Amino acid sequence: MTEPTAAWQEQIAALGPFFAFETHPAASELTSPWRTLSEVAQEESGVLRERVTAVRASLAARSGRPAEAVELRVAASVAHLGLVARVISPVLGLAALHGLSSRPPTLDDLRWHSGLGGAFALSLPGETVASVATDHSDSGALPRVRADADAETNADADADADAVETMLDGPIRELAHATASFSVSPRILWGNVASAVNGAAAGMASAAPALARPARTAALLFLSRPQLQDAHTLDAHNGRFRRRSCCLIYRAAPGASGALCGDCVLARP
Predict the structure, then answer these.
(1) CA distance 104 to 76
(2) pLDDT tens, residue by residue, 88-137
(3) How many whole angstroms separate alpha carbon 74 and alpha carbon 56?
(4) pTM (whole model) above 0.70
(5) I need a surface site. Which of 42, 60, 79, 98 has the fewest CB within 10 A?
(6) Rounded distance, CA 42 to CA 108, Å?
């Protein structure tokens, strides 16, 4: 098996803080300060509630108000969007540069340092990254995922679809289910996922314009799946992404009169 290299990590980290990751052996013991991301989806751990509460206080502080002035479901949606974006971005970065992993990580696999105000530290199993080299390399070459869609075989397409389904129905669905307990609708939560995917692709294209095409192709592998098809629209002429729900962050401002996100369903075309 080809081991992931520091060069890969540096290459992907150069795309931005949400793409950066460390690696660890899947079966290794936890060492401080690392924690498993699965604790976020476990109600009894209280980790998600703690994070939502912290996000609520942060949103309220922007306008000098007490935390109670911001609806709990608004803070939960914003917290969910941040968590999903952090989990998806490295996977999409790896996919755009080298290919989708046939061993997508579970929440139990993923490790993190909790933190607010930016991208928290994230560690992927080394096996997840190494499987890309095994699955996609040919004589040492590492092709970008579906850079030439016509050249992709049916077997490749099926493998990609399976990997994406595993990711969406595994860690992504678990995070959505956990956040739904804060009275956030599934429509909003899956809209957050679609927005995170599109945002990651846009971030890659901005950081490295040469990656615009493979980044968009990698994103479409996710956006075309049934879980996300009804969560967004893509303009056939200009490729503009627009979600079909609102993440609710505008409601965190006094009088629920905050600015709308650029991809919001409530924003004028």
Answers:
(1) 25
(2) 999 999 999 999 988 899 999 999 987 666 789 999 999 888 888 766 55
(3) 8
(4) yes
(5) 42
(6) 11
Q: What is the C-alpha separation between 3 and 130, in angstroms, rounded?
A: 5
Cα four-point dihedral sign 96, 99, 100, 103: negative
Q: Residue 248 in contact with residue 230, Cβ under 8 Å? A: no
164, 224 in Cβ contact below 8 A? Answer: no
Beta pairing class for 22-24 and 122-125: parallel
Single-letter residue type at 41: A
φ, ψ of residue 12 in degrees (nearest 5): -75, -40
Sheet holding 122-125, edge to edge: 22-24, 122-125, 111-112, 35-36
Residue 2: CB atoms within 10 A of its CB come to: 13
The sign of the dihedral angle between the CA atoms of 30, 4, 15, 19 is negative
The DSSP letter of residue 141 is B
Q: How confident is the model at residue 152 (pLDDT cuts 50, 70, 90)?
A: low
On whether the CB atoms of residues 100 and 163 are closer than 8 A, the answer is yes
Q: What are 9-15's contacts with CB under 8 Å, separation 24+?
A: 11/97, 12/90, 12/93, 12/94, 12/97, 14/207, 14/208, 15/89, 15/93, 15/203, 15/204, 15/207, 15/208, 15/211
Q: At what angle do helices 72-97 and 47-61 cross, to 10 degrees?
A: 100
The one-letter amino acid at 192:
N
Contact 145, 9 (CB under 8 A): no
Tell me which amino acid residue 247 is: C
